[in-house]
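BUG-669 | component: ligand-complex export | severity: low

The export step for flavin-adenine dinucleotide jobs runs without errors, but we want the raw record kept on the ticket for reference. Input record follows.
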Amino acid sequence: MERGGLIMDDKATLKMKAADGSAVEVPLTWTHTLVIGSGAAGLNAAVQLRANGVEDVRILTEGLEMGTSINTGSDKQTYYKLSLCGEDADSPVELARMYYGNGGMHGDLALVEASLSPRAFLNLVNMGVPFPRDAYGQFIGYKTDHDPRQRATSIGPYTSREMCRALIREVKRLNIAVEEGRHVVELIVLPDASGSGRRAAGALAIGDDGRLRAYGAENIVFATGGPGGLYKTSVYPDVHVGGIGLALMAGAQARNLAESQYGMASTKFRWNVSGTYMQVAPRFISTAADGVSDEKEFLTDYFETAGEMNSMVFLKGYQWPFDSRKVAGGSSIVDICVYMETALKGRRVFLDFRRNPTDFSFETLSDEAREYLEKSKALQATPIERLRAMNPGAIELYLDHGIDVTREPLEIAVCAQHNNGGLAGTHWWESVNVRRLFPVGEVNGSHGVYRPGGSALNSGQVAGFRAAEYIANRCKDWTVSRDAARDALSWQGERVLAWLDRCRSATASWQDEREAFQQRMSRDGAHIRVRAGLEKAVAEAWDQWARLDTAGCRYAGAEDMKEALRNRHLCFAHAVYLEAVLAAVRDGVGSRGSAIVVDPAGTPVHDRLGPEWRVAPEDAAFREKVMETEILADGKVKTAWTPRKPIPESDLWFETAWARFRQGAIYDD
Ligand SMILES: Cc1cc2nc3c(=O)[nH]c(=O)nc-3n(C[C@H](O)[C@H](O)[C@H](O)COP(=O)(O)OP(=O)(O)OC[C@H]3O[C@@H](n4cnc5c(N)ncnc54)[C@H](O)[C@@H]3O)c2cc1C
């Protein structure tokens, strides 16, 4: 069958052998461009593929209601873009310099994310996402973290959810094929035509019904989101585990895996406790593991006065992410205290809005905190009354999720929120070492050490434009060897079936295995990094992977089968992430971004913390480099530092640039 210049196959089946020798028929679907994942990034990639004339597009997803974008938000969820308001003069290069200036990011990616920002943003506006504007059509903005300008915008707590809803409407309007309830368990990568490189060729997925399905493809847009399932303490929505491990297992190169963002969040319902939750100065309490006994206002041990303590808590309102630069004498000390209670002492930490912290008084607050509360008319007697005055929606939000913060304390922890790193892509978002694989969204590691708040959503949208344009102009012809793809789908499918069979006699359940690697990541691979702990964690991680790969993990029924299969790629991914974090510590990067390196040779951070709390300073030379991580054919993990690319100087003379565009030469750069 031919459509839109693209050859399409009728549905077929693959015959595979199950572990007991019986034959299994697995449906095989060929699609020109398969989009795996339906978050904001994957959905836009599908829409842009159609806009670029690629007709045969299929979205494979766990579900349209799954993933981070449609299930998360924050106080004022931010979208970052080029300034489009007032006299705030801005330009692609100016914005690119901002990205680049944060360190560890390639200049070409910075320029692309900046250049396409207005296009991506206005596309959302045109699809009906109600970004605020004034009577004259200007898109008003505000300042976000790590940026001095007013480039940020928001539609409220659920910006990314509304983006998804608009994009889903568009996907439906365009009649793009969507298969929900599909859990990709293997990526198919083959030698490419040159014989020296590799290319994507398909995927295997388990359906909600527990049946295996095979997909052959010319291109794969890989949009599986951030690595939420790797951590025990995580503010990624609990339905979202991510899928980067699938690509790592298939040999795709990664970049800046060690750069992530962490911060305090509630754990029963996962939500960042930023903004007004902190500005009202709640009481921080910890209890024994039962959540009730031995209650203690633990923060008071770490501050000279109640005024100093409450002022730091106030600052956490707009200094949400844990920041290595704000540990000594700054607000990130609060995150360390919470970490010590939970991760080191095994206690539980809660925010209590019902009562003031001991010795609280407005007079002892810093000028900044007191004036803010005065101006906000938030001088009520208790934190909950101040919260009600400043942001009643903040109370309702928890009520909607069964938590009444007017009556009960809110459990929190320092949680993983975002991975700045991910898979390594070109400036057309094609994997640097697996051709025809296009990682987009959070799974693409385009960012460096810091990133302006809101830039994750911009990056995910920009990615869809880039991948779609490149596919339409350079990857439209069918080049994949269908026989080779069928063979690989068959043997990898049989491997999956054999693994599932081994799971029957496994001793550990999938829950036990998940708990083990999540605990390890939150303890050793998150915001507090210690070399000895990491060395042990890396060894344990590979031991766990070897055991899991050989023996499987116990599961019951089709619903659990997908969880068992997720453990395979999650466990593999956590070992690779730990390797990357260890390499960063061992190579002397020091404390930077949202992580500190605890080192006996470092500098003490706080006179009230124990002597072990000495922190390695950052070696700024690493800001000029990018960390690359690759899994070699023998299974070893190689990490290397490469100098980052500068912001490119493009030929901007109209006549010559136009000629290059007409000739399609821009796709060769
Ligand atoms: C609490 C919180 C607050 C945030 N606030 C902001 C903010 O203010 N501004 C900002 O820019 N960013 C923010 N972020 C980050 C941002 O929300 C994410 O980076 C972004 O939504 C990721 O979009 P995505 O499309 O890449 O992935 P997702 O939205 O996570 O989508 C991934 C998709 O892949 C699917 N999938 C995954 N694995 C598989 C598989 N094996 N098989 C099939 N399908 C699969 C999922 O079901 C889902 O459909 C925040 C994140 C969190 C957690």
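Assignee comment: Attached the raw record above. The CA atoms of residues 225 and 534 lie 25 Å apart.
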